[in-house]
Write a structure and sequence with these properties.
318 residues, seven-stranded mixed sheet, alpha/beta, five-stranded antiparallel sheet, 8 helices, 14 strands, elongated
């Protein structure tokens, strides 16, 4: 079998279900992310583009608006109970993908907290596109190849097609990565080829950040320390045991704990799709770790870690 890709705007306009000849979903190139903004169904297309796009860790950037509504309501109640609405509030929202769920929460928080700094960040908030002839290579900020367009194919370099079901795709991708991509990267490294920056926050999110200086967009790696202290930190659909090792979790939780102010809140949980239950919890910072104050669904996938002070390499002074 063979799977072709979608890599120009005309193809999107002519397609309705994006199914291939043999029933599999066609990959839509990430390079179209900023080209579909004027389309009547831009939101749906943006979601569809992100379904099969992953960052250089192999993590997908799937997202939907109104995904955490019930959980957001619980979190807001906890925030109102912990922090005076007349005081400044710094809120860190990490791993926000294209930022839609962050915007959902910001719109509610900004009414309650006029003096709000809402910092929405993602590990991979932008990528770079290299064009040479009819070939396009998308790379991460660290230079990792993420996607290759070699018409009529679109290849995800981090999540390759099954060689069992798509042997021709695998062969052609191998040839591209061995004989075409290296020369393009070499030209780019030598300064002979320019790149195009592609920001992966949604149009509504970018507009909000331009219109309201309380909504701040950033790039952040959870394995790195935060640049400024926060009253609350939220991490949704990212702190799952399948994504990080035990040693990485220790580092991440220490980073979060160290960044939170006295009595600060950590909000975390996961769900599958929009309108599904969030399994999460809201935790208060203590001198030894975190104390759970609210649970939703079955609780956070890392509740055991958060409830055990043994996972902190050192106590952080309040």
């Amino acid at each position: 079998m063979i799977k072709l890709g979608i890599y120009n705007l005309e193809q999107i306009k002519k397609n309705t279900n994006f199914k291939g000849l043999f029933g599999g979903d066609k990959k839509i190139s990430i390079t179209l992310y900023d080209k579909i903004l004027d389309e009547p169904d831009a939101d749906r297309l943006a979601e569809r583009i992100l379904i099969y796009f992953s960052d250089d860790r192999g993590a997908y950037k799937r997202t939907y608006s109104k995904r955490f509504e019930e959980f957001d309501s619980i979190a807001l109640d906890c925030l109102k109970g912990a922090f005076n609405n007349n005081a400044p509030l710094v809120f860190q929202d990490v791993a926000v993908s294209d930022g839609r769920t962050a915007l959902d929460l910001f719109e509610q928080m900004s009414v309650i907290y006029p003096d709000l700094s809402y910092i929405a960040s993602d590990y991979s908030s932008k990528v770079y596109v290299l064009d040479k002839g009819n070939v396009s290579v998308t790379i991460s900020t660290k230079g990792q190849v993420l996607e290759i367009i070699w018409p009529p194919f679109v290849f995800n370099a981090m999540k390759k097609d099954s060689c069992l079901y798509y042997p021709l795709n695998c062969l052609i991708q191998y040839l591209a990565q061995q004989f075409i991509v290296p020369s393009i990267l070499k030209e780019y490294d030598e300064g002979a080829l320019q790149s195009k920056e592609l920001v992966l926050f949604s149009h509504q999110v970018l507009k909000c950040s331009q219109d309201d200086n309380r909504f701040i967009l950033s790039q952040h790696d959870l394995l790195q320390s935060f640049k400024e202290p926060a009253h609350a930190i939220r991490a949704m659909n990212v702190l799952n045991p399948s994504y990080f090792s035990d040693s990485e979790f220790i580092k991440i939780l220490n980073n979060i704990h160290a960044s939170l102010c006295k009595g600060g809140l950590f909000i975390t949980g996961s769900n599958q799709d929009a309108d599904t239950t969030v399994h999460g919890g809201i935790y208060e910072k203590t001198i030894n770790g975190f104390k759970k104050i609210k649970q939703c669904g079955d609780g956070s996938p890392i509740d055991t870690l958060l409830s055990s002070s043994n996972y902190f390499s050192a106590k952080v002074s309040l």
